[in-house]
Amino acid sequence: MKVVLAGESWIVTETHYKGFDTAMLNRYEDFFADPFFAALKNQGIDLIYYPNHLAQTQFPETVEELKPYDAVILSDIGSNTLLLDPEMQFKGVKKGNRLLAIQEYVRQGGGLMMCGGYLSFAGLENKARYAMTPIADVLPVEMLNWDDRMEHPEGVVPVVTQADHPVLQGVDQGVWPPFLGYNKIMAKQAADEIATIDGDTFMAAWDYGQGRSFAFASDLAPHWGSKAFLEWESYETLFANIIKWLAKEI
To answer: Is the pTM of this model over 0.85?
Structure first.
């Protein structure tokens, strides 16, 4: 299987004050998602990765460009990054609408998963704003049109509500590890709500056209993905199952 993932990266700018003097430090980071990348590799899933700064200009623009992939994963990447190509924004050059392309890709048989984060679903201050895009029609959940973060530094544990769903094959059916937050979403009436978290939807899935889509309300990496979750024995199995389900392998 071959999947494409966009997001899960950031650039840090810091000012270090050292008495009279200051030093500006900059660095690129994407290492938080390493456990996810390793899980897919261990399962023989070929991952093509577009970090945020590259997705803005290099992520596929058309259905034909997406067709080689069994699934698309959007994780902590706002809709603006996929919509506002600099060549279009600053030079007035018409570009493909990537979100419309993803919608049609799924309709024609592809798979889409969105994982939670500060720039997923609605996100921090609604900056992800997917509720106002074609992705809202594709996903199996209703999204808010304002800041949807549910912060739980004390930890909150998902509850499985559909234990026989294929994505839970081989997944520990005991108590799940805690999460430190999630995006508040609600499964659509026709969708399968697979798990809840503090009364909200945690995982949901449905068929869309000839394809499938999946919503995972929390983070696949820190900070919402707790250390216990990243080290959970079922972490690899769960995400591999989700991708296999999207690809109609299970």
So the answer is: yes
